Amino acid sequence: MEAHSFGALNYVALIVYLAAIMAVGVYFAKRQKSSDDYFKAGGRIPGWAAGISVFATTLSSITFMSIPAKAYTGDWTFLVGQYMAIAVLPVVFWFYIPFFRKLNLTSVYEYLERRFDVKMRLFGSISFMLFHIGRISIIIYLTALALMPFVDISPLTIVFLIGVLCIVYTFMGGIEGVIWTDVIQGIMLSIAAILIFTMICFNVDGGMFKIFSFAAEHDKYFPADKFAWSWTDSTVPVLCIGFFFAALQQFTASQDVVQRYIVTDNIEETKKALITNAKLVACVPIFFFAVGTALYVYYIQNPELLPADFNTGGILPFYVISQMPAGIAGIIIAAVFAASQSSISSSLNSISACFTSDIYEKLSDNPSSEQKLKVGRLLTVIAGVLGVCASTYLIYSNESEIWDAFNSLLGLMGGPMTGLFMLGIFVKRANALGALFGVVASVVTVVCLRQFTDLNFFFYGVFGTIVVVIVGYIMSLFSAQPKSQHTVELTVGR
């Protein structure tokens, strides 16, 4: 399929967006006087802004494009998974937020050394950094791959616009710049979803009523067979369990989200952040699924507009470029860029926070705040360059099926990490030996499940978490009990 001409108005819209994002980075650069400013924003972030930032961080451009594609080819079953980010909030509110704010951590993995030992801290921190460098490269790669067939922009230009500019504004603005650009990007994502759906409704014969009635007639919402239990298929019960544990990992053991708990002035603002995120999660994903269903009805009514043998994974950018007015299409493509950059910038700042706190401070002799700021900025550049280079390699090597493989590895890393924090926070008897055996047993379990069974990958994080807690507790019984004074500060409950 030939790429469509992007057009002058679309270029103007995209350039205006990119310039605005860079301006935010430049504006907040002058506030970055210390490592606390760079990684914690000096507690200056209001709760509502932190909440939009969490939403934008967890919604990548791949989600932005893949949800409509999934609703186009299938149904709305995966929508239930989006709401698991709301279901975990009572646990996060009651236990984790007060706990993390009390400890005043720069890197969440500092806790693992205080509770267990330095090995667990390094395991958590290094795993996070490697995973997120990979995540950066794949988000850039898949965004470029999705846009290349539809716009006359070279893949390297797409990589540069997404990756390199993201490195620059993250380098300058720190977490404060990242969060305020996330606010812009999160608003753009939400408006884009609503705008696309609204415009499709005007182009479908019968409008919105026809879209929803047609979808109901063709069982495009929640088919009855998707409510059955399965160990292999992504049915509703499987999605609820899998997404719940994935959300638990994000909100309790992942630096990029947990870092938002300490950028506000007080605990009430932190809770307000997650309430804001919950409101967005409750509303915006519905529009993404509705867009996919609306596109399905639109192309059923206008089959001649869809090329033969079309790859439906790119249905959203195809519609945007081929059917939406010039200028508006540019804004939507800018929203795709925004979805990428919001996830990438958060990963970059979190990687630099982890390296500076967990590795540089351990190896250096009491570094000053200014030294830590310089190292943090340097790591932002290094991590970003590694991600951009990896994405460039993926483009030229024409890799395929990499996103599914990467998603399945999330259980390998996410499950043990979630379980490790759960073990430390809730099991007073747990100690370093138990944590070590628990993590090893968890990783081995998930690898075996992945290699030797047909188990749905949504279960990897579930089993990974449970194994850490159970094995960690049992093995802790065979060695010395932690000092009671030590566990009082670093665990919850009596």
Automatic annotation (TrEMBL):
Q: What is this protein called?
A: Sodium/glucose cotransporter
- Chief localization: membrane
The record's subcellular locations are: Cell membrane
Per UniProt, which keywords does this protein have? Cell membrane, Ion transport, Membrane, Sodium, Sodium transport, Transmembrane, Transmembrane helix, Transport
| Keyword Transport set for record | yes
Q: Does the keyword Transmembrane apply?
A: yes
InterPro entries xrefs: Na/Glc_symporter_sf, Na/solute_symporter, Sodium:Solute_Symporter_SSF
Which residues span the membrane? Answer: 6-28, 48-67, 79-101, 122-147, 153-175, 187-208, 228-248, 280-299, 319-339, 378-396, 408-426, 433-452, 458-478
| Bilayer disposition of the protein | Multi-pass membrane protein
The similarity comment for this entry is: Belongs to the sodium:solute symporter (SSF) (TC 2.A.21) family.
One Pfam family cited in the UniProt record for this chain: SSF
